[in-house]
Amino acid sequence: MELVDAPHSKCGTLGYVGSSPTAPTLMNTYSRFNVSFKKGKGCWLWDQKGNKYLDAVSGIATCSLGHSDRVLRKKLTSQLKKIQHVSNLYKIEEQELLSQWLTNHSCAESVFFCNSGAEANESAIKLLRKYGNQTNSKKESIILAAESGFHGRTFAALSATGQPKYHEGFQPLLTGFKFFEYNNIESVSNLFEECNSNNKNVSGVIIEPIQGEGGVIKGDKAFFNKLRKLCSEHNSLLIFDEVQSGVGRTGKLWGYQNLEIEPDGFTLAKGLGGGHPIGALLVNKKANIFNPGDHASTFGGNPFACTAALTVLEEIQKRKLLSNVCLRGKQLEKGLSLLSKKFPNIIEGKRGFGLLQGLVIKKEYIDAKTITLKAFEMGLLIVPAGGNVIRLVPPLIISRNEIKDLVKKLNLIFEAI
What we know:
Elements: E1 6-7, E2 13-14, E3 37-41, E4 44-47, E5 52-55, H1 58-61, H2 70-82, H3 93-104, E6 110-114, H4 117-135, E7 140-146, H5 155-159, E8 177-180, H6 185-197, E9 200-207, E10 210-211, E11 217-218, H7 221-233, E12 237-241, E13 265-268, E14 279-283, H8 303-318, H9 321-342, E15 347-353, E16 356-361, H10 368-377, E17 380-381, E18 383-385, E19 389-392, H11 400-416
Parallel strand pairs: 5-17, 7-8, 7-9, 9-12, 12-13
Antiparallel strand pairs: 1-2, 3-4, 4-5, 6-14, 10-11, 13-14, 15-16, 16-19, 18-19
Helix pairs in contact: 2-8, 3-8, 9-11
């Protein structure tokens, strides 16, 4: 993204500083806004100049309880006074409590903890490889994934990501992946047949129940029901990437619940820690095949991270935040629908679940990145997604008035275009 240097209406100087890092000691891996935030509270952030921003990014669907949550602060402060890290050479009480909560509230029976979404997906890919080699060691193991999917920046996760733009400069990628069209069961079925005819074994499928980075594309219930049956018929595992859709983001605790099927496993990160690094791979009995030495993580599931995650999950229950996500999601959908009707020359449509919503912008008119910059001028933080989409992923605690404010700001942005 090119540097933009334009005056704000109230926020100073705006831009992505993509041509160089903000400090000479930082690698140039991010195109950053020219802003530094000094504090946050709930759904709001303040920069060093005192300007206030409504945060509809929430650390890219990560700050489930918003910024500087009172309960999370208290629990983590208490944990730091006890113990923060000992490694997985020893039993970790906080990790066991978190794994029990997760398995009690999902279709999984066991959990592996790591530090991020990419690491969780790396774990899933290793598990799929091992499963394929166990079930049919005489055939090459193939993993299927969706075009326009996104599974992370590490090498196996990148190889499973069906978007060529992320592959540029990093070829050759890992082999053993084939890609199908999302929500097209014939495309998947053809790959199963192709692999069988070429003496290859489909060890499993890794797929998002709703594609986030790919453009906020909802999974079709009929497609996923047939995909579940197809995987079962071929003795292949079905793994969901719920890094973005999990932990209440869609109005259900897990994204797979919107599709009324159960995967053999699913990955979590982002919203699980409420802003603190933690990832997880959850599996059912069939997929519970890792043995000691198969996989590991030094920091994965340490007491501090697990306390953060358990606090987030318990507070989602106590505060009835799933209900709030459904109510605020419907309110946001209604607001986005009105904007679509009011600005048909700019907006092509809307899509999403709960508080994972997207506005599809007409490419021939303006690009989503430009709108993101204009929103910044208005004190609104949003994030682009694939296919020229504006992604809206505010904290799960967002209120009715804050949704009204969000829609109002979007309306002002489109009026000014």
